[in-house]
Design goal:
Structural class: alpha/beta
CATH class of the largest domain: Alpha Beta
Distance between the termini: 68 Å
Shape: globular
Helix content: 25-40%
Number of strands: 22
Strand order of the largest sheet: 3-2-6-1-7
CATH topology of the largest domain: Rossmann fold
């Protein structure tokens, strides 16, 4: 058996965008991933199928697996010939116990590679605009830890030795011991007016920061309800942080927003919201699954060239259609000379990925508008049309096209189904129950219905934020109203971009 290898990877401070290219490459080809509490779980989405994912979440006072057992686990998996990725928050060699794990690997003659990561002090300072070094105020930077050994909850550092420093102190894991640390710094000569900044969840959209002095920071921290994980920065540079809040100043920063799209569809909307500063909770109230009649698919593809129009009513239909099409044919020209219509811009973009031109997109992204434009502007009498759809699409499109008004010859090809999901044990649903949200964004009538069906499982705690409801368009709004849910705002156009703009507008001025 060939011997495996262990890769000690710095997962960075939290934002997945700050991980290294090398780290992502290794995650994508790992056999086993062993990850810590501070390694963003989103990084696991890059892993291949069948990868063993082992959570060894270590945080102060809460250790799921002792350090020696983690080291044994790394040796065991690598000894079986597997490539093991050890994901550690920040950098593995900056208070990450990477040195201990490397020592054990060396004893057992296990090959390893170390991939550095952006450590928390650098990231936290950058994301609040604190220059850790400055020619006039600080020419030294010192990294200190509040707990050298997390199992012991004790301090061996004599902080009074750093009381007279004129440089910048960066304290890792020091929140629980902060009263004692500040006391010792003052005993060592540090003035009570020395500026202090504390940054919680740095680089994530739930980042919180608070500022004060050695004398005032404890009360400021308590008032702001700052908790772990947090980076503490002490020094004159804190007072010279940038006044332009490039990160915390974004329009949706501090807002928690629920995205209700199916998990495989949520990415684009979540990214748009995240880029504007929102903390996004993905609650997929529906799932999308391939579901089709093989005989019908075979018949349709055998006669695909007879259709003059093919209509796609969703991005899901596009993806499933071309997945099946390329199994049957290896040349896009086998599609024939048909014209193509899409219900909206997002669906059209998915079609265009196949280097195909979309001939018709209605001004309003709904089935009625599409039928109207086909009948009024194109003329479909006796025209053979294929409608690619799912199991819950409204029949109004086909009915309009086949009516006396349209007189088209229409075949439908259902390729997927949407099903309600059970969010009872979903971690994001648990956060929603405890903390609530500022808004829930509904992108379809089916997500509204599933939300109502699971209302009991999503009951909010007494002190949780109670969200408003946003709708992507008239049909979704109608479903909300029919189910007695108030519509706070509706996107002026049924597109994700306009939906996000309207969300920003409403949450910036909810009384408009």
């Amino acid at each position: 058996m060939s011997q495996g290898k262990v890769f000690l990877i710095g997962a960075g401070p939290g934002d997945p965008g700050l991980i290294t290219v090398r780290a992502r490459e290794l995650i994508e080809r790992a056999d086993v991933i062993v990850y810590d509490y501070l390694a963003n779980p989103q990084l696991l989405d890059w892993a291949g199928e069948g990868v063993e994912k082992l959570y060894v979440g270590k945080r102060s006072g809460m250790h799921s697996i002792p350090q020696d057992e983690i080291e044994e686990l790394l040796v065991d998996r690598a000894g079986k010939g597997l490539n093991v990725v050890r994901l550690k928050g920040g950098d593995p060699f900056v208070f990450g116990r990477g040195g201990e794990e490397v020592s054990e690997l060396q004893v057992d003659k296990i090959p390893f590679e170390i991939v550095p990561g952006v450590t928390a002090a650098l990231a936290a300072a950058a994301y609040v605009g604190i220059p850790l070094s400055h020619r006039e105020y600080s020419s030294s930077i010192t990294f200190l830890t509040g707990h050298e050994n997390p199992e012991k909850q004790t301090l061996s550092i004599d902080f009074s030795r750093y009381g007279k420093t004129e440089g910048t102190l960066c304290l890792y894991m020091g929140l629980g011991q902060l009263p004692r640390i500040l006391k010792e710094l003052k005993e060592g000569g540090m003035p009570g007016g020395r500026p202090v900044g504390i940054i919680q969840w740095a680089t994530l959209n739930r980042q919180k920061s608070v500022y004060g002095t050695v004398d005032t920071i404890l009360s400021e921290m308590e008032a702001a309800r700052i908790g772990t994980p947090a980076m503490i920065i002490i020094g004159e540079v804190v007072a010279h942080r940038t006044r332009t809040e490039w990160f915390e100043g974004r329009p949706l920063f501090g807002k928690r927003i629920v995205v209700t799209r199916a998990r495989e569809q949520a990415g684009q909307l979540s990214k748009l919201l995240t880029d504007q500063g929102a903390e996004v909770l993905e609650l997929p109230f529906i799932s999308v699954q391939a579901h089709f009649d093989e005989k019908l698919v075979t018949e349709v593809f055998a006669g695909i060239a007879v259709y003059e129009w093919i209509i796609f009513t969703s991005t899901n239909g596009v993806k499933q259609f071309f997945d099946l099409f390329y199994r049957a044919y290896d040349d896009i020209r086998c599609l024939g000379p048909m014209r193509i219509a899409a219900v909206g811009a997002a669906t059209a973009r998915e079609i265009e990925k196949h280097k195909l031109k979309v001939d018709l997109i209605p001004k309003q992204a709904n089935a009625d508008a599409l039928a109207e434009e086909l009948i009024e502007n194109e003329g479909v009498e006796s025209v053979q049309i294929l409608v690619v759809t799912g199991n819950q699409n409204r029949q109004s499109l086909v009915q309009r096209l086949e009516s006396d008004e349209g007189r088209a010859i229409v075949d439908t090809l259902p390729l997927y189904k949407t099903a309600k999901t059970d969010l009872t044990k979903d971690p994001s649903a648990e956060r929603f129950r405890i903390e609530g949200a500022d808004a829930v964004l509904f992108t379809s009538a089916s997500t509204v219905k599933s939300f109502v069906d699971q209302h009991a499982a999503l009951k909010l705690a007494p002190d949780a934020r109670h969200p408003v409801f946003g709708s992507i368009g008239p049909l979704t709004s109608k479903t909300l109203k029919d189910l007695k849910l108030p519509v706070a705002f509706e996107s002026p156009e049924a597109s994700l971009h306009h939906f996000v703009v309207e969300t920003i507008s409403y949450l910036s001025n909810p009384s408009k």
